[in-house]
């Protein structure tokens, strides 16, 4: 039997449930050939036990920030407004540059 979310799409009615866990949308250009994605997800679980990590993709074209932005934008309607987005597409990987943290007020 198909769930309501599959039948109605991302914006469909949600079934009654326990209080929702926080959600992290996870997108990278890491690929899935090694342990990088698993390690990141283990760290997320350690920092926020019980968090729901939903993978958007880990096969964005390496260093292609525009492609990562398209995946981020395209998946946004399917997630709660308070979802956290973790995106790692870094053309300067290994550099001393600091991470970027942003809060969206859209929606």
Largest beta sheet: strand ordering: 2-1-3
Gap between N and C termini: 32 Å
Mean pLDDT: 81
Q: So what's the overall shape?
A: globular
Reading off the top of the CATH hierarchy, the class of the domain at 19-88 is best stated as Alpha Beta
What is the CATH homology-level superfamily of the domain at 19-88? S-adenosyl-l-methionine hydroxide adenosyltransferase, N-terminal
What order do the helices and strands follow? HEHEHE
Q: Supply the number of helical segments.
A: 3
Tell me the CATH topology of the domain at 19-88.
Rossmann fold
**Protein structure class:** alpha/beta
Shape-level CATH architecture of the domain at 19-88:
3-Layer(aba) Sandwich
The Rg value, from CA coordinates, equals: 15 Å
DSSP helix fraction = 25-40%
Low-confidence stretches: 1-8
Largest sheet: 3 strands, parallel
Instruction: Quote the beta fraction.
Output: 15-25%
What is the total tally of β strands? 3
Task: Outline the structure in words.
The chain has a domain at 19-88: S-adenosyl-l-methionine hydroxide adenosyltransferase, N-terminal (Rossmann fold), CATH 3.40.50. It has a 3-stranded parallel β-sheet with strand order 2-1-3. The longest helix has 12 residues, at 36-47. It has helices spanning 4-8, 36-47, 65-75, and strands at residues 23-28, 52-57, 84-88. Mean pLDDT is 81; it is low at 1-8. It contains 3 helices and 3 strands.
